[in-house]
Amino acid sequence: MKMDNVVTKTLLDIDKHIDALVKQIELLSYVNPLNIEEEKARFFSSKYLTDPVFNYPSIDFDRFKLHRKLFESDLESIEDAEISKLYEDIIYQYSGLIQCIETVGTDKKFYYNCLHCFGTPTENDVENAKFILHFEDEDKGIPKFQPKYSAAEAEVFFKNFSENYDFSYRIKHSDKISAIAMVLNNIKTLVLNTNHTYSDNEIAVLTNHEIGVHMVTTMNGLLHPLKIFSHGFPNNEETQEGLAVFAEYMSNNLTIKRLKELAYRVIAVDSLAKGYSFSRTFRLLHNQYDLDREEAFYITVRVHRGGGFTKDYLYLTGLKKVYDYYHSGKDLSLLLTGKVSLEYVDDIESLITKGLAVPAKHITDAYAENKNTNKKVDFILRSLK
Q: For position 99, what pLDDT does the model report?
């Protein structure tokens, strides 16, 4: 049932007020160190004993004022109890992200704020990661795993892949990110890491992951009357990363090697909870798990940046949840409507019914057909607890 014009206008005014405040809250813009490569050289030359000292971008907004104005939002005037509760959850979510941003680089403060926003692995999550690590990798000598493309060369593949979609976005190159590629939602931009040489498999994974899901949900999120679909529902990171890795699976590009990478991230985040330093997490991955030192370093950076960024364990938990959701016969398109969460599927359907949201226009190509032929990957995903 559609909402009446007066109620809708009140809600849209509140949504617009929140939108104006939170446009600057892109955590990844602040948590990526500016001096990764310099500190990597120093760390390696110290024989993995001296923890890196990372520098971060400066914060260009008044954090206190932003908090205050956020909580001034007049949620009491939203007559629909379900929508009012949703916005309450969202304001607390945004407030938590502001606290994360304002404490980047302060070690424990940032870590505790991340715990509040993203949580930390459970015993089950750690057991799932260790289960995955028992499996043999694919042969690294296979041509598709060989590094061969610069960021500039890789860009061509992303552009070609994006011709399947009816939207446009910017592509930037950077040597200041810890990921090999990422989407910045607030500025509709794909960032490619100039320090990385991409393999054919990585191109296939990243096009489906970054464009097929992250850019798709960015663009879908902009089509709604309500801007919360663009800025993000609570816990959207787990669902969004789960969807993105699931696109790798559906397009037959999810490998044991990739699953193990996600498992190592869980192990690394768990080491934070145990109080490990950067160097100790690195040595756990490199010495105990025999992970190549370059891979071990970048996974450790991802997890220890800012002072302890726990988000990375959510890729594996999100993948399992989306895998089970799909195999139970449910509609994935609802999860592509924006930066939304599995926990709020009923709210999304309700908002569409009330004329406050629209069905997803852009649909992930990989979801059209399950092309996965890797029986071992299926066995692993079914077996996760």
A: 93
- pLDDT interval class at 176 (50, 70, 90): confident
- Give the Cβ contact number of residue 49 at 10 Å: 10
For the record, the structure tokens of 81 come out as 């109890």
Contact (CB, 8 A) for 14 and 87: yes
Q: Among candidates 289, 247, 246, which has minimal Cα distance to 267? A: 289
Question: Which band of pLDDT confidence, cut at 50, 70 and 90, is reported for residue 4?
Answer: low
Strands (E), the chain: 170-174, 181-184, 189-193
DSSP characters over 251-288: TT---HHHHHHHHHHHHHHHHHHTT--HHHHHHIIIII
CA distances from 285 to 260, 316, 383 (A): 12, 17, 24
Cα(73)–Cα(38) distance, rounded to whole angstroms?
44
Cβ within 8 Å of residue 230, ≥6 positions away: 19, 185, 218, 221, 222, 224, 338, 339
Whole-angstrom distance, CA of residue 263 vs CA of residue 6: 50
In whole angstroms, how far apart are CA 384 and each of 118, 126, 319? 20, 11, 10
